[in-house]
Amino acid sequence: MRALYVIFVAILLQLLPHADTVFLSYEDARKTIVQAEDRLLTGSRIYLNDKEDKVNKMFMRYKLDELGAGFFDADVNAAGLHFFKGKKLVEKSKILKFLKRLPKGANLHLHPTASVSSEWVVRNISYTPGLLRCTDKNGVSILSFRRTPSKHGCITKYVLVKDERRRSLSPAGYDRGFEKLINLYTPVPEYDYPTIKTVWTKFQNMFRTMSDVLRYLPVFRAYSWRMLEEMYEDKLMYAELRMEFKELYDYSGRTFPPESSLKELLSIVNDFRRQNPKFMGIKVIFTTRRDVESNKVIENFSHFKKLHLAYPDFIIGFDLVGQEDLGQPLYNFISEFVNLPKTAKYFFHAGETNWYGASTDFNLLDALLLNTTRIGHGYALMKHPIILNAVKARDIAIEVSPISNQVLHLVNDLRNHPGSFFMSQNLPMVICNDDPGLWGSKGLSYDFYYAIMSFAPNHAGLKTLKKLVWNSIRYSTLNKQEMRFAFQSLEKTWNQFINDVLQGKVF
Ligand SMILES: [Zn+2]
After folding, report:
1. In whole angstroms, what is the distance from residue 143 CA to residue 138 CA?
2. Taking residues 225-241, what's their average pLDDT?
3. Which partner from 94, 357, 370, 436 sits 20 to 30 angstroms from 129, CA to CA?
């Protein structure tokens, strides 16, 4: 029996060249395997200095207390609950408090039109004079500031939101109803969204509700500013946004071509950086919807190439968005997509599916063959050993958005998310938030909560967090000089954070 442990350990770890000559006790064999697995974990090779070590001990006390309570009572185990069920618990957690103050580097997967918290939208946009609302044939509210709004498929007249609120029984009640138009939150997600179809329909309707409002110049400016503010308040220093550029309009009815929204955004970011010099700004991954006619996708791809050539350091790459299962697979566009400008990159959403072997599932393969720089979601990756090996060998980062994958119906308990598998062998991964505004999240801290509480093993602490934060810069497309600056700046804010924790300013 004893020899069996030896062979077992030797095969697994390749540590003992002459396994048959070395004997391990049961306890030693056990310990060896545990230690070997620990060495593979995300963050295992991170060195912690004395101060960081003290902070880690504090963090671990709170983490293990919280998980310990959850182990004996699943009702309070936020790490295993749906975000909508566990949000109140997460918000009471000392871990979230810690993560909100933790410098988190960069956010590499965010869609701006779903980035700002719904609470801010209600308090600000819904109170902006001139906001109109109508309802389309599917019962979806459409919001607009145009003086003579086009129908947008509305079957009701446009009414002023201000008038509706005044006529309502309670303005606070009206605001709560308004927020439901742009936030998927429900205390009973299993009842309100029994299938992926129900949740995706509501989710995509929300983009429709907000689409015209976000093209109103004053709102475009205020919303974009708030997006940067919410990132910065959540201790992010940089982001790569997935977006398209649309025509803007103002109250007088003037319209401005799509490129003007790009210039507006650049100017907003520059102003924001002047006020907040630690914020390094943003770059843009140009996106187009995958659920439209092929020629529209091809047309937008050509448009992207032109924009990239005009703004090569700002419009850095291309991606397709929308529900992957129901949209067109990458394979439909190979003959176009092989013609990418040398300076541009792909950042494909791929593998955001539970359909093993369906056309959607092959997006991972095509993303790889098209030389994608990162993979959006990569949820299905662990079912594809060859692709997975290539991802490791080519160091392609996986952009993991835990809450998004849960809310949009890929997995219920985030402890079953492949993020655990990615972490168990230190696959290149970054934590992202996708569309936080549409499910009542804010910044990246909530997603980090699930990364460290649900994906990571119980004993993983600051080393794992630090590795994830450092990954976010390492796998960004910042150029050499920008990256050097980013790491220097991150190091400073990180050390300040460590001091703050030790001085009792965080917990
Ligand atoms: Zn996305």
Report:
1. 15
2. 98
3. 436
Cα dist from 133 to 78, 157, 179, 207, 281, whole Å: 37, 8, 13, 14, 34
Residue 152's pLDDT is what? 73
The Cα 299–Cα 305 span in angstroms is 10
Distances (CA, A) of 69 to 61, 63, 76, 411, 444: 12, 10, 7, 23, 25
Token digits for 154? 């509305």
Task: Round to whole Å and give the CA distance between 197 and 189.
Answer: 13
CA distances from 196 to 202, 329, 350, 371, 501 (A): 10, 18, 17, 30, 41
Q: Which residues pair with 349 in a beta bridge?
A: 376
Q: The tokens 């963090």 sit on which residue?
A: 59
Residue carrying the six token digits 């992957």 = 324
Is 152 catalytic? The answer is no
Q: How far is the CA of 168 from the centre of ligand 1 (A)?
A: 36
Question: 48 with 462: CB under 8 angstroms?
Answer: yes
The 10s digit of each residue's pLDDT in 9-32 is 555 555 544 455 578 999 999 999
pLDDT in the model for residue 22? 73
Which entry of 324, 352, 399, 417 is annotated as an active-site residue? 352
Ligand 1 centroid, distance to 321 Cα (angstroms): 7
What residue type is 124 in one-letter code? Answer: N
The count of C-alpha atoms lying within 13 angstroms of the C-alpha of 349, restricted to the half-sphere facing its C-beta, is 28
**Number of CB atoms found within 10 A of residue 115's CB:** 26
- Residue 417 known to be catalytic: no
Q: Where are the alpha helices (DSSP H) in 15-139?
A: 26-40, 50-72, 83-92, 94-101, 118-124
Q: Residue 176: phi, psi to the nearest 5?
A: -65, -40
H/E run at residue 364:
helix 363-369
Q: How far away, in angstroms, is 109 Cα from ligand 1 center?
A: 6
Active site residue: 111, 308, 377, 384, which one?
377
C-alpha torsion 224→230→233→237, nearest 10: -60
319, 345 contact by CB (below 8 A): no
- Please state the domain extents for the chain: 119-204
pLDDT tens for residues 40-59? 999 999 999 999 999 999 99
CA distance 449 to 93: 9
Ligand 1 centre from 230 Cα, in Å? 18
Average pLDDT, the chain: 95
